[in-house]
Automatic annotation (TrEMBL):
<keyword id="KW-0764">Sulfate transport</keyword>
<dbReference type="Pfam" id="PF07264">
    <property type="entry name" value="EI24"/>
</dbReference>
<feature type="transmembrane region" description="Helical">
    <location>
        <begin position="69"/>
        <end position="90"/>
    </location>
</feature>
<dbReference type="GO" id="GO:0019344">
    <property type="term" value="P:cysteine biosynthetic process"/>
</dbReference>
<keyword id="KW-0997">Cell inner membrane</keyword>
<dbReference type="GO" id="GO:0009675">
    <property type="term" value="F:high-affinity sulfate:proton symporter activity"/>
</dbReference>
<keyword id="KW-0028">Amino-acid biosynthesis</keyword>
<dbReference type="InterPro" id="IPR059112">
    <property type="entry name" value="CysZ/EI24"/>
</dbReference>
<keyword id="KW-1133">Transmembrane helix</keyword>
<feature type="transmembrane region" description="Helical">
    <location>
        <begin position="144"/>
        <end position="170"/>
    </location>
</feature>
<dbReference type="GO" id="GO:0000103">
    <property type="term" value="P:sulfate assimilation"/>
</dbReference>
<dbReference type="GO" id="GO:0005886">
    <property type="term" value="C:plasma membrane"/>
</dbReference>
<protein>
    <submittedName>
        <fullName>CysZ protein</fullName>
    </submittedName>
</protein>
<feature type="transmembrane region" description="Helical">
    <location>
        <begin position="27"/>
        <end position="49"/>
    </location>
</feature>
<dbReference type="InterPro" id="IPR050480">
    <property type="entry name" value="CysZ-like"/>
</dbReference>
<keyword id="KW-1003">Cell membrane</keyword>
<keyword id="KW-0472">Membrane</keyword>
Amino acid sequence: MIKNILKGIKAYTGTFKLISKLGIWKYFGVPMLISFLTATLIGFSAWGWSDNIGSVIAKIWFWEWGSETFRTISDIIGGFAIVAIGLILYKHIVMALSAPFMSPVSEKIEAHLLGVNHVHRDTTNAAQLWRGVRINVRNLCMELLLTIPILLLSLIPVVNIITSILLFLVQSYYAGFGNMDYTLERHFKYDESIRFVKKNKGIAIGNGVVFMAMLLIPIVGIILVLPLSVTASTTETVRLIKESGRLKTPEILQKESNV
């Protein structure tokens, strides 16, 4: 697991060079805009709603002594909760809406890695968008089911140190999952993709760790997170599919068509 996580992180090495070499920066324009606008909306929401959430949390403290301190802590927890849930929504909204733009990028990277002019595709842009929505809605529900209990446990002193790490890893896994699916959708059906990512969860986590870390960098991180994470994910996902014997190269497709 740890070895694969490190592989997922290491895949980011050389992403700038590869993107520039293939001339695919132009494909990231709309996704970058989607990413920036979504992050801005979530940021303002966290700022405006933290006090409201904090006041609700503060009501569980019935005593007079320490009430002001607990209210301050409640506001911080409220803001943290909104940011945590906001990051979940951010990932899945951006990834779902960016699918028609990221899939062609993944194709070009895969073609380069295989040394061919193009890779085979059976789906349309509409199908890519629907697949992106379907995968990300599924991942959103799963992630929320895991995140809410973790957030509740974070109210317990000392335990919240562990839950913070756990929450980061959960978010990283589903971020990496979404990035991997831009490549997987050309090779696997919906259910097969889910099983494939579960089998290679270390790679997904590693990719997502850098994805989540980049979101902590103001503006620049939000703008560059998709180009770099999708490029890194594609290189690793193509490798994994090739190792599994499921990679359909032009030669294999030609043989299948002659059967």
